[in-house]
Design brief:
Largest sheet: 5 strands, mixed
Mean pLDDT: 93
Strand order of the largest sheet: 4-3-5-7-6
Radius of gyration: 24 Å
Number of domains: 2
Distance between the termini: 74 Å
Number of strands: 7
Helix content: 55-70%
Order of helices and strands: HHHHHHHHHHEEHHHHHHHEHEHEHEE
Low-confidence stretches: none
Shape: globular
Number of helices: 20
Length: 485
């Protein structure tokens, strides 16, 4: 069987991998949006929900936070300019067409579908560049390992951006300049997908190195003389440039992002982590080795990286991913979900390492032990990754849902609420209310600005407000209190 040709056998194998990946991603699909990184997921879902309620104005995305916490500037309209709201609009449309599930479930389903397409692309690229064995294990890694699974079903735009940048790579991979009709179609689709990917998440732009490589292998040393090379990258970047120029008119809707390169928040305040030992420990040991690979698949990934391939294409993908990691060190240490952009090359080279081990098994250990060892490694990696870290990602605090129900009971949809959650917008989202996720001014000042209710779990504030007797207590238990302002 020709290893470079996608066959019916590949369709069956890939289908089985995709089914396994789908089943795992459906775990807790209906859970409230208060699991890991719920504040970021809530902001993303809130934009989609406001599209569904107020109309699809992609130039004016809104979320539930009306405060100045994110940008340092008062934001009474709740403008949200983190990325172009393409991903949000996709699942908002799905919700509008068939509103039978909560909108955040549509967000999860959208991410899941995108991740399954990513798995198929990884399988194809490994099949064409390495071997069928590598393609199976690379796809399987992305499909079933817990960290891959969790970040492939969250309401975040990273997986959407990764899908579109991989589609741009795939279609340029198919591009043959000498075949006019098919060439133009593949070139155009690739260009559009790359433009969409960097609109959704500009950090995927580093995979542009792989696109440059594909131009080089088509044109060799003549690449710098080809207008379509410049045309491609100029047109792909143009929508993002226009978007960034446009949103500068609304600085209140642009959260601070300077810290992403070098800073992390600690209990002692912000610390510079740029190329410090802590950066390497957190990203390469805690995140990649333990959380993502569960420890036991790490040697296979390293073996894959050290494998000499016929072409450097896949290594360029890996280098692109690591350039992203090294540029945004603060963000990657602060938040695990930032590693979502690195997941495809991690899966690719794990597949290559496992394929090498199987295909050259006589060089390592007795062939009789190869398959049990690989199965044992997957089981241990899955278990360690899940129980060490990922299991906690699925948990959500019951008190948040109780607080949301209380807010919903006592307030109108138009009321502005203070939730006092240290900037976390999850409670605002769960209650479907707009307001401030932190007491960023005094209670009196926020009341004068139109805030009507105040939910807090800060014991000292509760005691003080009860002593002052200015604001009636609508609800109180041992955990929190709800005041009318």
């Amino acid at each position: 069987m020709d290893k470079n040709k996608f066959s019916k056998f590949d369709a069956v194998i890939l289908g089985c991998v995709l089914i396994a990946g789908l089943i795992l991603r459906l775990y807790q699909i209906n859970a409230p949006l208060s699991d890991a990184y719920s504040w970021r997921q809530a902001d993303t879902a809130a934009v989609a929900r406001n599209f569904a309620k107020d109309g699809f104005n992609l130039l004016k995305p809104h979320y539930d936070d009306l405060s100045s916490i994110q940008s340092g500037i008062d934001n009474p309209q709740g403008l949200r300019f983190v990325e172009a709201p393409i991903y949000n609009a996709i699942f908002a449309v799905a919700y509008k067409v068939l509103p039978i599930l909560p909108i955040e479930v549509y967000g999860r389903i959208t991410t899941i579908i995108f991740s399954l397409i990513i798995i198929a692309i990884l399988y194809y690229l490994l099949l064409k560049e390495v071997s069928r064995t590598a393609s199976f294990f690379g796809a399987l890694t992305y499909a079933i390992l817990p960290a891959f699974v969790f970040f492939s079903r969250v309401v975040l735009p990273e997986t959407a951006a990764v899908l579109f940048v991989l589609l741009s790579i795939l279609f340029l991979y198919w591009w043959q300049p000498q075949r006019k009709a098919a060439s133009l179609l593949n070139f155009t689709i690739s260009l559009i997908c790359f433009a969409i990917s960097i609109l959704i998440k500009p950090t995927v732009v580093f995979y542009g190195f792989a696109l440059v490589y594909l131009f080089i292998i088509r044109y060799k040393f003549e690449v710098l003389k080809k207008l379509d090379f410049y045309f491609y990258f100029f047109l792909a970047a143009l929508p993002f440039i226009l978007w960034r120029l446009y949103i500068l008119k609304y600085p209140e809707g642009i959260p601070s992002s300077d810290w992403l390169i070098a800073m992390v928040n600690t209990y002692e305040g912000q610390k510079n982590i740029f190329f410090k030992p802590a950066f390497f420990r957190w990203v390469f040991y805690e995140r990649i080795s333990l959380m993502i690979f569960g420890g036991f698949l790490t040697p296979f990934f390293i073996a894959g990286v050290l494998t000499k391939l016929k072409k450097p294409f896949l290594h360029i993908l890996l280098i692109s991913g690591f350039i992203y990691i090294f540029v945004f060190q603060g963000g990657n240490v602060q938040h695990e979900y930032y590693q979502t952009i690195l997941l495809p090359p991690l899966a690719l080279f794990t597949g290559i390492g496992l394929g090498l081990f199987l295909e050259d098994r006589k060089k390592f250990i007795h062939p009789l032990f190869v398959y049990p060892l690989i199965i044992f490694s997957f089981v241990l990696s899955f278990s360690f990754s899940y129980y060490y870290k990922v299991k906690g990602f699925y948990t959500y605090p019951a008190d948040l849902n109780q607080m949301a129900k209380i807010i919903d009971t006592f307030t109108l949809p138009t009321d502005k609420i203070i939730t006092d959650r240290l900037g976390d917008t999850t409670l605002l989202y769960l209650a479907d209310r707009k307001g401030a996720p932190m007491l960023y001014r005094t209670v009196e000042q926020l009341r004068d600005e139109g805030y009507s209710y105040y939910m807090t779990d800060k014991k000292e504030i509760i005691s003080q407000l009860k002593i002052e007797k200015k604001y009636p207590v609508l609800f109180e238990n041992s955990q929190f209190a709800f005041f009318k302002l």
